């Protein structure tokens, strides 16, 4: 089947946006690597307790991002070598695959990586919410339902793509774009709701009878969580909006450029934002190691990895295992 090519000006704009995005991706990969190594080193050096769920999540997210970048760079290099005989061949190779009829496995791998990164980021946020709310399943019921819907949509996308041997029809392509957009909007809702629940819980605890320094600490924790979630939410929303806009001859080039840029930036932020948040909370923990034992009895109630917590500020007694032998103040871990 012959692929109808867009005007030459559109081809040039699309090729230029792909090349710029790939090169920018390499820069982001380097930034992410530095952030990941620095965060892991900081988190492992901290004197207070560490949680392996955090280490596993940020490490898996980084691994998924690396796989996605390797696939993108390998596909780009292959097309530059084998599909650059003419501008039309290069356009078809970069946008559609080999001459418009080739394998779509790089796109499939990219979709899997984006689904995994979004799931890891949302899952980690829900896990924080679960622990902050004293391991209450009721508190995370709606975020969990949204995450379930997100996973179902992702599985439907994967199923449709696999059934068509990674080469869906034009009609199915429109359907996949709509499903992808719905999944991204649900991701945005999940992150926003989880962040609001965490912030509300910390704000409620901070209103109790605790010291001024503890209230200041709670405020800083909320700021870190909200800033991290806001960056991820904004990029996710920006990635979702272009998927629901129809292509026309007039908007094809700018819309493709915007969609490509938003997609890659959102993947980067989905991985790096939770990682930076872990580093910031670890630094905050180290800065407050000299906090008094009285403050510890209040603040240790609000952490993400405790075995059991009591957030009623009227109770002054805290279990010995929650205080970890009262060696140091334990702050919310991410």
Brief overview:
Helix content is 73%, strand content 0%. It has 334 residues and is an all-alpha fold.
Please describe what this structure looks like.
The structure is a single chain. This protein is mainly alpha-helical and 334 residues long. The chain has one domain: Up-down Bundle (Rhopdopsin 7-helix transmembrane proteins). It has helices spanning 8-45, 52-82, 87-96, 105-132, 141-163, 170-206, 212-240, 252-287, 293-299, 320-323. Residues 292-334 have low confidence and may be disordered.
List the keywords:
disordered C terminus; mainly alpha; single chain; elongated; 334 residues
The number of helices is 10
Q: Calculate Rg over CA atoms.
A: 23 Å
Which structural category fits the helices and strands? mainly alpha
Annotation, overall tally of beta strands = 0
Total domains = 1
Would you identify the regions where 5 or more consecutive residues have pLDDT less than 50? 292-334
Could you tell me how far the N terminus lies from the C terminus, measured between alpha carbons in angstroms? 52 Å
Helical residues, percent: over 70%
CATH class: Mainly Alpha
List the helices and strands in order: HHHHHHHHHH
Architecture (CATH level 2) name: Up-down Bundle
Transmembrane segments: 26-44, 51-68, 108-127, 139-160, 180-200, 221-245, 265-283
Organism: Gymnopilus dilepis
Keywords: Membrane, Transmembrane, Transmembrane helix
Region (Disordered): 315-334
